Amino acid sequence: MDVESTKASLEGINIVVGWLDKASEYLKPFKPEIKSIVINYKNQRSEINLLLHIPDGIRRKLHSVEVPAYQNFVVQDMMDESFVRIGGLWQYEDGKWKLDPGKLPKSERYLLMLRGTVPSEMLDQLVRIQPAVNRDQTEEFDRFWLHCMLRNAALLEKMWQELSIDEVNVGVKVGIERCFSTTIPKELKGRLEATQRWIAAGRGKDREEVRRAWQRMREVTRSSKVSVEEIVQTIYRLTTGEAFATFLAVDDPYRIGEIRREERLVGLFPARMAVEATTELGLKKPTAAGYLSFKKKAYTSEIKTSLDKLGV
Fold first, then answer.
1. Residue 10 has pLDDT above 60, yes or no
2. What 3-state class would DSSP assign to 244?
3. Which residue blocks in the chain are alpha helix, DSSP H?
4. CA angle (293, 298, 304) in 5-degree steps
5. What does DSSP assign to residue 209?
């Protein structure tokens, strides 16, 4: 990694640890130890767990601890050695988190949980996601290569004992237009085109075009026992995330995340499905690679079966 990239990574890291450094200074009498840092890439949330040592002598000496708030980080909770939750003892006042150590239950060690939001630009400096590439096309499958990694993992390992970035999502655009266009019968395409033309004409101001489009639609649909609405509903059912997921497979350490239909059409049919493949990265696993496979032959067969059931 070059000097500029390393500098950018450090600047990004400082967004997360900036408050941690400040908080650690104020918590210095408690000898804070970082137990873990967890960042959720998708929802941009960060979780930092600190172990505090607060023996009786410290509790008697200190009457108040104040930690200035920073970068939307908050004291989420606190537990003693018996796992009793005592986060409510922290109070937020005048831009500071305040604690009276004298109110703590008798224990020597406490786990302090901090939560906050992380800017997207900082995440980009911590994680590199390679755009998914369709590397392997066969009659049965389309396969997309997935790859993501921690930037400058060696530097991060020097700074933290444990770091986890969850729900790192690699977006994949899976083309499906040909699955439909090669399956839909020619006469059905004519009906769909006529319907599309009539809808478009209705949005315009050319009354003559509306009349011609309506007449054409009636001509091509008059002899059909299947309505255009039924066909459109079938197409949309086959492009729901739940239905499409059954035609996807992904290698470990990835798993299938959110799936949605792109609204853009190519001619008459949805052009692509937007698929998220998610994984976790950490100091022990700084890189994730694998294939996402689309079973396009099986999907095309399912389209044909569904249309056959309609009597198309």
1. no
2. helix
3. 3-26, 56-61, 120-126, 153-159, 177-181, 186-203, 207-221, 228-238, 241-245, 296-310
4. 140
5. H
DSSP for 35-98, please give it.
EEEEEETTTTEEEEEEEEE--HHHHHH-S-EEEE-BTTBEEEEEEETT--B-GGG-EEETTEEE
Query: Measured at the alpha carbon of residue 244, what is the angle toward residues 285 and 133, in degrees to the nearest 5?
Result: 50
- CA angle in degrees (0–180, nearest 5) for 273-279-283: 155
pLDDT score for 167: 94
Rounded to two decimals, the pTM is 0.76
What average pLDDT does range 277-298 have in this prediction?
Answer: 95
- Average pLDDT over the chain, rounded to an integer: 83
253 in Cβ contact with 280 (< 8 Å): yes
Q: What are the residue ranges spanned by the domains of the chain?
A: 3-118, 121-180+231-310, 181-226
In eight-state DSSP terms, residue 260 is E
pLDDT above 50: residue 6: no
Q: How far are the Cα atoms of 171, 275, 292 from residue 130, in angstroms, in the given order?
A: 10, 15, 14
| CATH dotted code for 3-118 | 3.30.70
Q: Which of 95, 105, 113 is nearest to 56 (CA)?
A: 105
Phi-psi region of 267 (alpha: psi -120 to 50; beta: other; left: phi over 0): left
SS3 23: helix
Highest mean pLDDT among 39-43, 51-55, 73-77, 143-147: 143-147
The token duo for 302 is: 């399912």
For the domain bounded by 121-180+231-310, which CATH number is listed? 2.60.40
Which amino acid is residue 151, in one-letter code? R
